[in-house]
Every structure is written in structure tokens, then in C-alpha cells.
Automatic annotation (TrEMBL):
Gene Ontology MF: a single term: mRNA binding
Assigned protein family: Belongs to the HutP family.
Keyword Manganese listed: no
HAMAP family xref list: HutP (MF_00779)
Protein name per UniProt: Hut operon positive regulatory protein
Gene name per UniProt: hutP
GO biological process: L-histidine metabolic process; positive regulation of gene expression
Protein keywords: Activator, Histidine metabolism, RNA-binding, Transcription, Transcription regulation
Subunit structure: Homohexamer.
Known role: Antiterminator that binds to cis-acting regulatory sequences on the mRNA in the presence of histidine, thereby suppressing transcription termination and activating the hut operon for histidine utilization.
Amino acid sequence: MLHADRRIGRQALMLVLDEDARAEVIQKQGWIGCVGKVGSMDAHKVVAAIETAAKREGVIGEDRYREGHALYHAILEALQGVTRGSLQLGSVLRTVGLRFAVLRGNPYENTEEGDWLAVALYGTIGAPVKGLEHEAIGLGINHI
């Protein structure tokens, strides 16, 4: 059963929206996580920045395929939200400026459920002209 105080997606969204909440969210739940920023006209650069931060901060292991694979799918799901279903950016003259949060932990009362990953993205998307963008948010959750 999903524990109400341990909704990993909700916590990731709170973390991406409130930079100061990082230590409190992560310590309270006993989870691990990271936050960062990325801006690009290329979706693969967004994916790479988030994966690099997650590995650097120890959220996922560098040599564990299943962890990287779970993170990859959570990132793509979150990007789908930001891009409204189309992962195209530069090829259709769109750019993003995003903050990201990655959380890893078990949101369930039963510890045998294992760890899950949540990726939250918040920022802007639009034409590559300053001032012509709008806000966007995305969330992806995947089990390891």
C-alpha cells in the first residue's frame, strides 16, 4: 500500500519547486536525491544532464543497467509532460530551461516493494527567443 506521506512523485515536485526543501524532504524520508538545472534545444542533452547528476550524486549506480534504465524511462515520461507529448525540441525550434529533481526511495509501507525513481521537471519551453517561452512541468516515476 502506498503510504500517504511517502508519495515520491509529490515529493519530487515539491523539491523541484522549492529549492530549500531538499534536505528536509530527503532526510525525512530516508531517500536519496539530487537537484539541478539544464537548458537546451536538444532533448538528449536534457537526458544526459539529469543522468550525469544522478550518477554523480549517488542516486543511481554507474555500473547498474537496471537503475540507469529506470531513470531513463522516468526522464522520458517527465519530458513528455514538458513537451506536451512530443520530445522534439530544436528540430521544431523549441528550447527548454528547466530545474530538475530526482528522488530515489520506497514509497510503500512494505519494504519488499523496493526502490522507485521520480523525476520532476519545471521551467520554461518555447521559441528560442528570450521572453517568448511559457512555464511547463513534467513528472516521471519508474520502479527499479
